Fold this protein.
Amino acid sequence: NNGTIMDNNNNNNKTSRLRELMIGQCSSLQDIHLTNLVNSNLQQQLESLTLLQCLRVKRPSLTFHNLRSLSLMACYSLEDLPNFHCPSLIDLKLTFCSRLPGQVIQDIVHRTAPNLRSLTLTKCLLLRKLEVYSESLETLKIGLNNPMENVVVFCDRLQVLETTCTRITSLHIVSSRLPYLNLCSMTSLEELRLHCLSLQQLGLAGCENLTNENCHIHCPALREVDVCG
């Protein structure tokens, strides 16, 4: 592509209807190319952006006013997201971004929280602590973030929470709509605080380090609890 992803003068008319953009396994894509996107008409019109295995992207500037979905997958060199501003974002996926600092991820989550409905964080190896405070979030998936130890989720509309982070030691969840929670085989879990008014099923099998003293559950609709093993 001769180092050019977007030429403002020649391509604005050609992309006037473009709403979704996926760039996958593009070894030549660099930060400057994404800056060109931001400086084009796509800044206002793009609604979905996916970057898959773009290994030379390190510190992209992502500012899209109407972007609703953002997926950054297997961008192993990603180190920062400076000037991040996507106020319309409702779906965010960060997967296998192993060099992205935990504080950067936390800041992005905090900025997008007012409108975010779905959040997926997978294999973000520098994320040790996660705090999510959102009145709009409905789905939260956190998996294979092996260093993660502390999770705090205050999301009144949360309906789905999935986690495979077996090293979590402390988990605090507040939600009025979450119906089901599976924490089975979380062998490192030592403290659990649940204030979930609609929770009916709770799986705790294999949580061998969780004691009564550190288990605080206020779930008036709870019907089934699995503590086998």
